[in-house]
Records
---
Amino acid sequence: MPRDANRSLDARFQRSSSALREALLRVLDRAELAHVTVQMIVKEAGIGYATFFRHHPSLESLLLAVADAMIGDVAARIFPDLVKGNQEGALAEFVLYVEQNRRAIRALLVGGGDRIRREIVVRATAQAGVLPFQIDPTLPPELAIRHLVAAGMEVIVWHLDREPGRSGPSKVLDDLSQLLRRLALAPVIVPLH
């Protein structure tokens, strides 16, 4: 097959992959994960049913692809602050991302069930392991990152299961930041400045 044809197929494959991920997120804005079907996703994406299965063997596979994309988005958002040693800025970016993607994150971490959540923790831990966190040098780095991710996910799940408070969006963000700081970051990170 000519090289240009391969590039065309690769580009089409990437567009279909992206369309499926975006369609799943749009469907999740309207329906709980338990009620989402492959048919709903392909209709939303405007692609054929068979195309879904060329990309993913199951809905679970698409969920994990969405999770991987979101983990990558988070890493890209917090990396610049972490490189500068601005852990507070990184935390603020993370909390803002969680709030902006509240429904999708809740669907993945709660609606996907324990098996999906465990897999997301594994994937997020691998990604977090390459970020420049200022880990307490008295702790094993792998364990510190695992704690950071797992505890952070538990705080997020708890937060997303609550109804937002009446005190306004900035108070909700401050509350989430405080919880993440105390329960996930403080035990393993050199003190935030």
---
Amino acid sequence: MPRKPKKPCRYPSCPELTEERYCKKHQKEIDREYNKSSRPYKKLYNSSRWQKLRKHVLTKQPLCVICLGNKRINPATVVDHIKPHKGDVKLFFDINNLQPLCKTCHDRKTAKEDGRWGKKGVVYGYSQ
């Protein structure tokens, strides 16, 4: 079966031809930058302290609080920070700042707070 022709790497001024978006060298660089910026608080979410607290919150209240407020019954799968912690460890582990939500409600709440998943104030269109 014939393959698609190779195209230039999308990294600025890279002449390499590739079947992917970036050549192997630049793909590693792009991945590294993405990992640095995508989840700066990842270590907090991976801690055993958070896992235990999350499990406690979901055991204590197994239903989504937003859905319950709208007279629906949905299981909670996500523990949400009511007030965004932005890396504040004390606020991150404050049990009074946590609420159980279903994934749909959590995603909707986060999108409203962050303005389209972290792009607050950005209007879709072409940048110059």
---
Amino acid sequence: MAHHFQESCAYFTAAKYMRAVERHADTAFAPTGMKPAYSYIMLTLEDAHPQSITALAAALGYERSSISRMVQTLAKHWLVQLTTKGRTTQVDLGPRAGEWLPIAQDCLLQWDRTANELLGSGKQVMVDALVANTRKLEVQ
């Protein structure tokens, strides 16, 4: 019996796609010295700050423990400041954020150019489908 999961399994194909995307995104975000996820946290905070770890996790689709671990790393680099109030940890931009954020923004633009070049005109259709399908799966 031949298995065809390479072409029909949503889990397998999404994970394989993500590994390929991650290799290219890591290259684009290399000037930050960190994985792309750290830039997305910082850019999210630039848009609205401070935010709780819970709010960042919800906005970015990560587990709270992953966000907590990543913001601890960002705090060690003085990119964010953490303030605990009761059981809530607030994350705000840190003293080095102003010099680091333009680099992250440039990396995001480079990543967008790379993705457009590699994926062509079908990129936006695929992104729209991924957003819609992610919303369906998050309801479950």
---
Amino acid sequence: MTFMPDHFTVWMEIPVTNLDQAISFYNKVFKTELRLVTDMGPNPFAMFPVKEDASGVAGHLYPGKPAPRGTGPTVHLLCPDTLEETMERFAESGGTIISDPIAIPTGRFAYGEDPDGNSIGLFIFNS
């Protein structure tokens, strides 16, 4: 039997060298408010918010050592508005846009690197 759950991805973690700066970057780019958690483990981390009644996948930023640029996995995050507006904020906030928008059947996305060099996909579903 083949394992085929509703959601194969259950969590994501993005390592950053400066947690406060990374929180500011992701808050501005994605128009959100990451929640700083200081009482769960040896290090503080910042959680990406989801609606309380949602079964969506989230994750967090944590103090860590990012993979060298161009070598780590890519985490795709949902744009809060248009792909182009999110790309603009991403670049203005210190990230680097790596690709032009790419269309796929379910939407569009672009690749970027956050200030720590983490590979981030900026994704928007078709309306």
